[in-house]
Amino acid sequence: MAVTAVHQLAQCITCHAWSADRSMVALCPNNSEVHIYRLVEDKWEKMHVLQKHDQLISGIDWSARSNKIVTASHDRNSYVWNLERSEWVPTLVILRLNRAALCVQWSPKENKFAVGSGAKTVCICYYEQENNWWVSKLIRKRHDSSVTCVSWHPDNILVASTSTDGKCRIFSTFIKGVDAKDPKNESRFGELIVQLDLSPSWTFGVKWSPSGNTLAYVGHNSVIYFVDDVGPSPLAQNVVFRDLPLRDVLFVSEKMVIGVGYDCIPMVFAADERGIWSFIRYLGERKAVSSGSRYGSQFSEAFGKFYGQAKQGGSNDASETSRTRGVVHENCINSIIPLSRQGTQIRRFSTTGLDGKLVMWDLETEQDLLELLVH
Amino acid sequence: MARAERFVEADNAEAIITRIEHKSRKIESLLKQYKPVEALKTALEGTYAMTGDERCKSAHWIAVHRALMAIKDVDGMLSSLDPEYYDILMKYLYRGLATGDRPTCDQCLRIHEKLTEKAGLGCILRFLTDTVNTV
C-alpha cells in the first residue's frame, strides 16, 4: 500500500506545512492557532502553539532555507514567524486587504511570498531591509472573484493564481531591488502574462511542474486542466474524470501529477510520450463493488430514496465495505505537500483533510507508477 | 470561442431549426425501424453547438425527448453510446426531470441511475457547474 503512516492530529485540519528536515509539521486545526508537532519516537508531541490570528488560518507555508513560517488568515492579516531561541516570534505583514486571505506560498528563493484573497487580489510581499519589515504590493489587475490558490514558477518571478471565476491568471511579480534584472524577461510588476479561461466553474489547486513548463489546475466540475508551454500560445488539455472534484494537485515529476479532493483517495494522472495527459488510477484500494455500496452508506441511502427503492441491499453492508476497502481519509483531502525530493521527482508526500488526519504516502511500493515516473 | 459561435448561430437560427426538423424526420424513421439507440445517437449529435436561442434548444429537446422515450433497453443503449455523449445526455436527463411529466420523469430517472453508474458523479457535477452550455 502506498500509505506509510496515518496520524489523527486534530478533528479537522485546514492546512499544513513541513519544516525543512521534515521533522516538524505545522498545521491549523480549523481554528485561529497554528500547532507545531514533532515526531518523537513514533508519537507526535505538540511543541509550539502559535496564537496571534483572530480567525481561521487558511494557509501556512514553511520556508526550507530561511526557516520562516508564513500564515494567512481570514482576519485579513498575515504573519511571518521567526524562530528566536526556542520561541516563534510573529511579525505582522500589513496586506491592505479588506477581505479574508485564502492561500499563501513562499517563492522559490524565499525572498517573497504571495497571498491570494477574497478581495479578488493577489498580494506579493517582500522584505525591506532598511525598515526591517515586510511590504505588501497588490497586483492591480484583479480577478473577478476570490483567489483560491497561488503558485510560484521556479524562476521566482511568475505567479499563477486560480479563482472562483473559473480563470487561471499568470502575473509577473518583478520587483526592482528584490529581483535581478533579466534581459530576456522584461516584465513589469503586476503584468498579466496569460489568462486561461478553460473552466466554467470554480478553479483550485494550481501548481507548476518542476521545470515550469507545464501548469495544472483543477475545476469544480470534476475536470483537471493541463497547460503545456505556458506563454503566448499555450496547449491546453482537459482531463474529465468520473468522480467528485479535486481540491489540490502535486507534480511528483514532470510527467506525473497526484490530485486530491472530495473523493478522499489520491488520483494519479500521467502524460504519455506524446504528451497527452490521462487518468491512471487511484492511489489506494478502490475495489469496484456493486452499484449500491460503491459510494458508502450515506450515498447509497440517498440514491435509494432517489430511485424509489427502500434500501439498496442493506446499507450496513455498504458502510462495512468502505471500512474494509482501506479508505484512509474519511473526508475531503484539502492539501498535498511533498515530503522528499530525489532530483526533480517526489517519491513521498503527505496529505491532510477535513477529517483531521495527516497521512504520509510513499510511491516506492507502487511499481507501475515508478516505471511511469522514471520515463 | 463558444460565444463567437453563438453570435453567428443566432443569425442562422432558422437554418438550425430546419436542420433539427430534418434530424427529427431521420429520428422518426429510425424509431419506426425499431432502432431507438441509433435514434438517440442522432438526436444527441450536433448538440455541441448548443446555440443560445431558446427556440433551437426547445426544438432540440423535443427531438431528444422523442428518442429517449422510445428506449427500452437502457443498459444496451449506454454500452453502445460514446463516452463523449455522457455529459450531454446527463443535461437532457435533468431537463426531462424538470418537466414534471410522469412518464418522462420515470424514463429519465431510470436512465439517470444507469448513467451515474457508468459515468460517475463527475458527470452530474459537470451538468451542475456548466452554466454556459445549457440545453
UniProtKB/TrEMBL annotation, chain A:
Taxonomy, superkingdom: Eukaryota
A Pfam family the protein falls into: WD40
Localization annotation: Cytoplasm, Cytoskeleton
Entry-linked InterPro entries: ARPC1 (IPR017383), WD40/YVTN_repeat-like_dom_sf (IPR015943), WD40_repeat_CS (IPR019775), WD40_repeat_dom_sf (IPR036322), WD40_rpt (IPR001680)
Keywords in alphabetical order: Actin-binding, Cytoplasm, Cytoskeleton, Repeat, WD repeat
Assigned protein family: Belongs to the WD repeat ARPC1 family.
Protein name, entry field: Actin-related protein 2/3 complex subunit
Organism of provenance: Stylosanthes scabra
UniProtKB/TrEMBL annotation, chain B:
Keyword Protease: no
Keyword annotations of the record: Cytoplasm, Cytoskeleton
PANTHER family linked to this entry: ARP2/3 COMPLEX 16 KD SUBUNIT P16-ARC (PTHR12644)
Organism: Stylosanthes scabra
Signal peptide: none
Cell location: Cytoplasm, Cytoskeleton
Family stated for the protein in its record: Belongs to the ARPC5 family.
Protein name in the entry: Actin-related protein 2/3 complex subunit 5
Function: Functions as component of the Arp2/3 complex which is involved in regulation of actin polymerization and together with an activating nucleation-promoting factor (NPF) mediates the formation of branched actin networks. Arp2/3 complex plays a critical role in the control of cell morphogenesis via the modulation of cell polarity development.
Pfam families registered for this protein in UniProt: P16-Arc (PF04699)
Domain of life from the UniProt record: Eukaryota
